[in-house]
Design goal:
It contains six helices and no strands. The protein has one domain (34-161). It is mostly helical. The model has no long low-confidence stretch (mean pLDDT 78).
Length: 165
C-alpha cells in the first residue's frame, strides 16, 4: 500500500496543470456543474451590472433597515438570480435557439452551463434534477421573503408603540 501511495505522489509531482490563460480559465470551472449553488452568485460570463440592477430593485422595493434586513434582501436577489439561471439552463436544454429568460427573471447567458447539462442529457434524470434544484431555490426565496416581511412588520409595530420624544 505504501508503494502505491509513493507512486501516486511521484506522478502528482509531475503534473503542472494548464499553462495557457485559456487552459487555466477552462479548468477553473471544472467543479462547476450548473452554478445554481455556486459560491459566487454571478458566474464568469454573466453580467455583473445586471445582477447589481436586480439587487438595487429588491433594495428599492423592500427598503431594508439594518444589517439583518439588508442581508435578507441580498439573499432574495441572490436566489432570484439563481432562479433565472435555472430557467436559462432549462430553456437552453429544451430549445437550443433560445435567447433570453422568462419575463420577470434576469436574462442570463447560460451557454457554457447549457453545454454541461446537454452532455448529461443522456441521463434520464437531468431535467428532474434541475427541477428539484429550482424547487429548492423557490422554497428558499419564499422563506426568505416571509422572514423579511415578518421582520419589517415587527419593526413597524415597535416604532408605532414607541412614545414620540
Amino acid at each position: 500500500m505504501k508503494c502505491e501511495s509513493s507512486a501516486n505522489r511521484a506522478n502528482a509531482a509531475l503534473s503542472t496543470g494548464p499553462r495557457s490563460e485559456a487552459g487555466k480559465a477552462r479548468v477553473s470551472l471544472n467543479a462547476l456543474r450548473h452554478g445554481l449553488f455556486a459560491r459566487d452568485v454571478v458566474l464568469p460570463g454573466e453580467d455583473r451590472a445586471a445582477y447589481d440592477g436586480t439587487l438595487a430593485e429588491f433594495t428599492a422595493e423592500y427598503l431594508p433597515k439594518g444589517r439583518y434586513e439588508q442581508a435578507l434582501v441580498a439573499r432574495l436577489a441572490d436566489i432570484w438570480w439563481r432562479l433565472g439561471r435555472a430557467a436559462a439552463i432549462e430553456a437552453g436544454l429544451l430549445s437550443p435557439d433560445w435567447e433570453g429568460g422568462p419575463d420577470g427573471l434576469p436574462r442570463i447567458d447560460a451557454g457554457p452551463l447549457v453545454d454541461t447539462f446537454r452532455v448529461a442529457l443522456d441521463n434520464a434524470g437531468t431535467l428532474d434534477m434541475l427541477g428539484r434544484h429550482e424547487a429548492r431555490l423557490a422554497r428558499a426565496f419564499d422563506t426568505t421573503a416571509r422572514l423579511l416581511e415578518h421582520r419589517q412588520r415587527q419593526r413597524r409595530e415597535q416604532a408605532r408603540k414607541r412614545p414620540e420624544k
